[in-house]
Amino acid sequence: MEMSASSSLATLTSSNYAGVFLLSSCLVMLALYVATDFFTLAPCRVKLPGPAGLPLVGNLFQMRAGHARSLAHWSKLYGGMFRLALGEREAIIINTYSDVNKTLIQQGAAFQSRPEFRLWHGAFSRALDPDAPTTIGTTKFSEQISKYRRLLTAQTSAAKLPSFNHFAARRYFRLVNLLSDSAKSGVAQDLGFHFWTTTIGISADILFGQRFDEDMTRLVADVNIKAFRQRSLATPVHDYISLVATGERILLTVASPLRFLLRPLGISSWLDSIYEAEAHAKELRDAEVGYCKKLLNDLHERLDAGDHTPSQMGDLFRSINDGTLTPNEELRLATTLTGSGMSSGTGLTWLAPLLAVHPEMQEKAYRAIEEVYGGETPDPLDTDRVEYIKALGMEAGRYFASIRLGFPRETHEDVIVDGISIPKGVLVVYNSYQINRDPQRYDFPEEFVPERWMDGHYGRTDVKQPKVGVPHLNHGAGRRVCMGVPNVNKMFYGNLVLLLHFFKLERAPLGDAARAAVFPKLRAIGESSLEVHPIDDQVSVCDPQALPLAAGVKLTPRDPEALARWLAEGHRELDQWDRPNPTDASLDSEVVVDPGIRGHY
User: Which cofactor does it need (predicted)?
Assistant: First the structure.
């Protein structure tokens, strides 16, 4: 009996201890959960709901699991605007079109600045020179930035674009040659190189007023695609936690000579990744600054010699004509616009493989082109003549939302939104992917429906409505909206109308040779599904611009003889193909052939 009582007492005591321990653990976890805001490095100045994070780092690592899906999940829980703690940064995420209207549009002055990030503004932009300029679009707001935007807006307006048609026409001819060569190969190929070198090539040509050869075109396209990846959100960690950045600096300095000793501990590989990331950023910056400086010097030499070729930078210099721009200011303007065709190239590279598995869309597009042009080859410079082609472009911008988180903003001044006080200096991110799927703005938001933009419809198929506001958030809204939208839309249309007029598309796997030729090579890590899913079929879930995985597209000419005739002589019907603009004294009537590419002018 005594032993039994003693045993029971011991059991009861153990049970109590276990219960107390469990209860204590729960209380500690609850306290940590409730007090997360007090343990994060980010200030808690904005009284908006948001997900609980981890002590110190907040929601930083949760974001790294994937921008689109993480934010989409949180938007369902916390609504149109919520707060995140990203290391030391307090961030507001905007998820609905109505909240964009309340902030970026109605109170645009308060939301017109930009945040700075260590990777982009430090390791990339200022890697070679502490005073090196960043692009206009990634710089904090100032009266100087306002001045730059006014200067560039005059050169990027829709009214100005026709003066550069002769450059675009040659690029479109080169595109059809590339597509024709791909069709002749008889095998599926990825079309990324075709589209990016066309759209970024057009941007570079009209910026500096000269036709670039294949090597320069490839270089500019490659650098701009890869440089954009330096602008991601919530990564790397040292962008958001100063202590980590300082620790990395110390480790890189102190441990560098001992890397071979640290390799067995696994530390060396981590250091190597930091070295490689920063070295890559500096390499990209070196290339960008190098070719922009060279091209600016070449342009000044031509202007001094009396060249009147229309170009964005040349026309800008002629309009100022007082030497008020410093070399750094010129470089800032040039780096801002050099890669402005990237968005169009990315959208086309997403769209082509989707169309390849939808022959009904291809046929509808072809019939629409036939109806407008009566069997003749469409003029790619005659933008928006074919409503269905325009609708395909607008829907691709909405559906794929390649610029996933827009270009982050920072509050320029204190502001109140719906009674919530938001102080100056808060990081603001408009979640383009989620906003482009706002059910209040779009019906069937998860489906690719070009008809939502046709016959008086503007975003919804169930109602006709006036064309008010931007169709989607892929290029921003309000102040600091992308200045190059007219050119982006024009290039998208020109590429797409020629592609669908001349060729049928079908999906097929990439062979070894075609996979080796994927541009840029980082897209060859996998092959897109037939669905061409905007999230699952991207290179990285945290890229600021969602790059599609490689996709095999087999091209078949609709009319091989008509295609051959157009390549031989029909292309000369393009407006301003061989004749210069009235003020263009530098271009003669001869077509200049790039010796590196047969027939690619």
Answer: heme
